[in-house]
Amino acid sequence: MSAAAVRPAATASAVAPGHARGQWVGRLLAHGVWDTRVTGTDNLPADGPVLLAANHLGVLDGPVLFGVTPRPVHLLVKHEMFRGPVGALLRWCRQIPVDRANGRPALTTALAVLKHGGVVGVFPEGNRGRGDVTSARAGIAWLAVNSGATVLPVAVLGTRRTGESVRHLPAPRRRLAVEFGAPLDLAAAPGASRREALAAAQEAIRTGLASHVTAAAARTGLTLPTDDPEAPRRSPAATPRPH
User: Fold this and answer.
1) Where are the compositionally biased (Low complexity) regions (predicted)?
2) Would you list the domain boundaries of the chain?
3) Contact indicator for 78, 39 with CB cutoff of 8 Å
4) What is the pTM of this model?
5) How far apart are CA 201 and CA 187, in angstroms?
6) Please, what CATH class does the domain formed by 14-165+172-222 belong to?
7) Nearest Cα residue to 150 out of 179, 180, 129
8) In percent, how much of the chain has pLDDT > 70?
């Protein structure tokens, strides 16, 4: 599936049936299978482009975030997930496949969604792991600067504990938390070049999200895992560098 297969025009004025039904399933999982506490939804504007920046712990992060976000959201999902029944579900829900070796098509599609007033969700860390946001990829800053969208940090907690695989599904009724934070200030310094503005936005998103996650973990008592099972398998060359 190409990223262009997501039709952005449907995101602002009308919600695709698959998207609406998919969110219903996501809410059922979040609140029926697991015990997900959701706070801060009043920080999400009722309309207009919004970019959600969420930390990434495990395989459940995307489905839970998709289900509890009050507005229809298009998440950037690694293209390897678009296979078999899971891939069919992702296509049905209008999610955006991203090839981490070439993120340009996904970013272009996500930008179109934002330009049509929609909501896009990104995991800036790029991989599941500790979820402490010690790094962030450049793509989300490119989207923020080029779209002018409101950027909200989102803390996802409880989906993975220390010692659990990043593919682990928590036991039913485990307590999870999703906290939507206040919009981040990404204003560039006067006279900043485009490169400087992108770098500043990338760091502002990383530090803002990291701070929000740390505070949310303290508030909820849901600590972040201390291990990073996928770290040894990662290639440091996989970061898209949009211009």
Assistant:
1) 234-243
2) 14-165+172-222
3) no
4) 0.87
5) 8
6) alpha beta
7) 180
8) 87
